[in-house]
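Journal club side-thread
Mid-discussion, someone asked how the predicted structure for our own chain would compare to the paper's figures. Pasting it here so we can look after the session.
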Amino acid sequence: MNRTASALILLTLAGLGIGLTWLAQQQARPLIQEQREAIENRKLLDVLPPGQYQSRPLRLEAAQQAHSLLLSGTLMLKDGQPTAVVLQSRTQGYGGPLELMIGIGANGRLLGVKTLSHAETPGLGGKIADQGNRWLQHWLGKSRADTPDSDWSLKQDGGQFDQIAGATITSRAAVNAIHDALRYFDEHQAQLMGNAAHE
């Protein structure tokens, strides 16, 4: 076999390999996307009461808040009715960015908070990411209607909330981000919850 024939066979095999790889990627793409969406939906469900929900992404206006940045929002529907909004928030903790997932019911009450990522000190501010964190559970059911804006701070700052022991900056950042999310929801409730009616 001469060199030209060998080169042609090699190129044919390489082209066939590339073609089969491309075809496999095209066939796997919907499954990969479905799995990504399932993972994202599981994160959303972590801050909501148990149940079957449908989710719709929201476009957020004025995402920069006083103490945090709202990265994304999702309207959660139950039996086709808007029941909650889940906001992903980023604020500055002690060690770096602190990202929270914050669930808010249609009535403006806090349904759940979960830490998505942080750079806090293990054993101190890092406790904010512990599974079933009782400190974050403290706010469940709270709203701006029953907790005035002036009380949404740590006790040492004149507010009503305790801090995580040894993690004042982390605690302050989390309280501020949660308050920002509740304020944003209250100020934009009609457009956030009304999106389902207009689609």
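Post-session note: The longest helix spans residues 3-45.
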